[in-house]
Amino acid sequence: MTLTFRPVTRADFALLRRWLEQPHVARWWNHATTSEALDRDFGGTADGTEPGEDLLALDDGEPVGLVQRSRLVDFADYRDEFAALTDVPDGAVTIDYLVGDPGRVGRGLGTAMIRAVVADTWRAYPRAPAVLVAVVAANARSWRALERAGFRRVAEGPMNPDNPVDDPLHYVYRLDRPDTGTVTGSG
């Protein structure tokens, strides 16, 4: 499996609609899928007018999932939710993700997507010291994928769930930038 990423464009909205309507996605993402809702939720990033990124995950060129990535500083309310539970280092990035095709769920694709986007994050955000991810506690499949990708649970507590049927209890995961052994600064 060779995973790459490219920005979501408006031409991808029909694909996003299909994915968001899949029961395994709809349960946790809880997004409306009307044209207006897709424009509201993905239009700004597709047009480059909002911070953050919506990225299609591609397996050998075939779209298989979605990753949202942003700097926490760009979303103060969300950053504050994290900060109420754990340390949020300056420059921290957060991600969210979904596997679109139900036939590919439970086969390691989510973990592979997380690993690949984190590796890409270290390149794309050279000053990011860590990636933080909040997962509703009931979504065991998601937090287990994070653990398999090397994240460690650093906190738990209430955050606003995407789906109002969920309890506010979230687990917060963190992965720090690996030490490359490079010495910086003057010596």
Automatic annotation (TrEMBL):
GO terms for biological process: response to antibiotic; siderophore biosynthetic process. GO terms for molecular function: N-acyltransferase activity. This is Lysine N-acyltransferase MbtK. Coiled coil: none annotated. Residues 3-178 form the N-acetyltransferase domain. InterPro entries: Acyl_CoA_acyltransferase (IPR016181), Acyltransferase_MbtK/IucB-like (IPR019432), GNAT_dom (IPR000182). Keywords: Antibiotic resistance, Transferase. Pathway: Siderophore biosynthesis; mycobactin biosynthesis. It comes from the Bacteria. PANTHER family: LYSINE N-ACYLTRANSFERASE C17G9.06C-RELATED. Acyltransferase required for the direct transfer of medium- to long-chain fatty acyl moieties from a carrier protein (MbtL) on to the epsilon-amino group of lysine residue in the mycobactin core.
